[in-house]
Write a structure and sequence with these properties.
- The structure is a single chain.
- The termini are far apart.
- Helix 3 packs parallel to helix 9.
- With about 425 residues, the protein is an alpha/beta fold.
- The protein is globular, with a radius of gyration of 21 Å.
- It folds into 2 domains: about 140 residues, Aspartate Aminotransferase, domain 1 (Alpha-Beta Complex); about 220 residues, Aspartate Aminotransferase, domain 2.
- A 7-stranded mixed beta sheet has the order 4-10-9-8-7-5-6, with helices on both faces. A 4-stranded mixed beta sheet has the order 1-2-3-13. A 3-stranded antiparallel beta sheet has the order 11-12-14, with helices on both faces.
- Helix 6 links the parallel strand 7 and strand 8.
- Bound molecules: pyridoxal-5'-phosphate.
- Pyridoxal-5'-phosphate (PLP) binds next to helix 4.
- Keywords: Aminotransferase, Isomerase, Plasmid, Pyridoxal phosphate, Transferase.
- InterPro entries: Aminotrans_3, PyrdxlP-dep_Trfase, PyrdxlP-dep_Trfase_major, PyrdxlP-dep_Trfase_small.
- It comes from Sinorhizobium americanum.
Length: about 425
């Protein structure tokens, strides 16, 4: 039986924190709930909306295109899909064969299946969050899951554990899976993991569902000179419309030819039209550069507000995706609570993501809301508590399920 005391994410979403808010509408990075209270979205709709909600260029072009295009087709093999596959191959030239799915979790599970079919081996060594599907329900994303897949082993971003797992499972490892978390882990960690994958003859699978279309043009691996066998992508592919992708080398994707990956709703032509338009707008409006520029302003806003209020905090990460570290989980939860009260939509732990719509008016409202949130936070919490290495170790365990060693051995990156 399930432990009724254990809280999962759904309970959390439907309980007291962010999701007790019922949204009605959003424009750009400002959303409104059913009571008319507005929130400044720090999550870019969980990364799904790099352009911001209701972006008029996107919505107008989509409406126009759909006057000519078909909504749903008898087969998933369509002109729009092939067009989008071509664009993705150009963007991710090291992994040119692209297969589409709907959600990020669809893509990560498909990547595992492809790796297993390609190698004929069952074991996946994994670090980081890959979605809600059963195979990835290791803690902290699920407390004591009733079904554990013994072939999925979490190395918790720890090279020592990874090396032990590679030795213990010699001959049975299909691939090493890795989610980049640029706030904490440097690119060299992935470079080392890539070398280990080559050394042991296993596939390197990188989960770029969150970062692939925002961190840098062509994604995290390309930016840092890592050549993966497979990457997974989703957020930002089609501006909030459900579409994800597995992109791989021709060799790795031979695994897809034997695996069953069919799914009904890839017949939804509208999603591919949305994907093609999104990628067109990304090019035309230099969206990745804009995300970095707005993200840099967002980071600066938090940094200066914390400094001016004399609040111990650290803002860590890249311009397009960063985390805020407070002395303890208790401090973090109190901060997020005060933010929500004052209309800043965030959580703790949480990744802050810019969107291209964040303009001067948005930053003015954010500045005022943040001052109020920080003033209340100061009153409630112990301001003598500092952000220490222990705060970071705790954060890494909670947010990424990383070990203390994994966190501290990358101290040079985040300290
Ligand atoms: C790195 C990563 N992988 C996989 C997923 C799962 O994507 P989805 O929620 O669309 O299933 C997410 C979602 O947040 C993610 O950030």
């Amino acid at each position: 039986m399930l432990n009724p005391g254990a809280t999962g994410h759904l309970a959390e979403w439907e309980g007291e924190t962010p999701s007790s808010i019922i949204f009605r509408s959003a424009n750009g990075a400002i959303a409104e709930d059913i009571h008319g209270k507005t929130y400044l979205d720090m999550t870019s709709c969980s990364g799904a909306s790099p352009l911001g909600s209701n972006n008029t260029v996107f919505t107008t072009r989509l409406a126009q295109a759909m006057e000519q295009e078909t909504d749903v087709l008898p087969s998933p093999v369509s002109e729009q899909r092939q067009l989008l596959a071509g664009k993705m191959s150009e963007m991710f030239p090291d992994t040119p064969r692209v297969f589409f799915l709907r959600t990020g979790s669809c893509a990560t599970e498909a990547a595992v299946r492809i790796a297993r079919y390609r190698t004929g081996r069952p074991v996946i060594l994994t670090a980081g969050f890959h979605g809600w599907h059963d195979i990835f329900q290791q803690p902290p994303w699920s407390d004591n899951p009733p079904a554990k897949d013994q072939h999925i082993q979490d190395y918790q971003y720890d090279l020592g554990i990874l090396e032990q797992q590679l030795a213990r499972n010699q001959g049975t490892v299909a691939g090493i899976f890795f989610t980049p978390e640029p706030s904490v882990f440097p690119p060299e960690l992935l470079q080392e993991i890539s070398s280990l994958a080559r050394l042991h003859g296993v596939l390197l699978v990188v989960d770029e569902v969150l970062c692939g279309l925002r961190y840098a043009k062509g994604g995290y691996c390309r930016k840092h000179g890592v050549k993966p066998d497979i990457i997974t992508l989703a957020k930002g592919v089609a501006q909030g419309v459900g579409l994800s992708a597995v992109a791989g080398t021709a060799d790795a994707m031979a695994g897809a030819d034997r695996a069953y990956l069919g799914n009904t709703y890839l017949r939804e032509n509208r999603a591919f039209v949305a994907g093609n338009l999104t990628q067109e707008i990304f090019e035309e409006a230099k969206i990745v550069e804009r995300l970095a520029e707005r993200g840099s302003a967002l980071k600066r806003q938090f940094q200066t507000s914390f400094e001016r209020s004399g609040i111990p905090a650290r803002v860590l990460g890249s311009d397009t995706m960063f985390d805020i570290l407070l002395p303890s989980q208790k401090h973090g939860r109190a901060f997020a609570h005060r933010c929500l009260q004052h209309g800043i939509y965030t959580g703790y732990p949480g990744t802050y993501m810019s969107n291209a719509s964040m303009n001067a008016a948005f930053f003015r409202v954010l500045h005022a809301a943040l001052e109020l949130a920080l003033a209340d936070y100061r009153k409630d919490e112990d301001m003598t508590a500092q952000v220490t290495d222990a705060s970071m170790v705790d954060y890494c365990a909670e947010a990424f399920h990383a070990t203390e060693k994994a966190c501290l051995s990358n101290r040079h990156h985040w300290a």
